[in-house]
Design goal:
Layout lengths: L11 H30 L13 H4 L2
Length: about 60
């Protein structure tokens, strides 16, 4: 499949740069996944819509 890829094409600096970019991307994705997991497990902080008081509309 990857017969055109030669393992010694990149210099050491280019390899480190690619690894660091991939590391940042994966870390960002993982942090976003953790945040969504926490948000899904958290208790809802607001009351349901029927019980919520719409005070801003009463002032008009």
């Amino acid at each position: 499949m990857m017969r055109f890829f030669k393992p010694n094409q990149l210099t050491t600096e280019q390899r480190l740069f690619c690894i660091s970019v991939a590391n940042i991307a994966l870390t960002t994705l993982y942090n976003a996944y953790q945040m969504t997991k926490q948000a899904n497990n958290a208790e809802p902080k607001r009351a349901p819509v029927k019980e919520r008081k719409l005070s801003s509309f009463k002032m008009r």
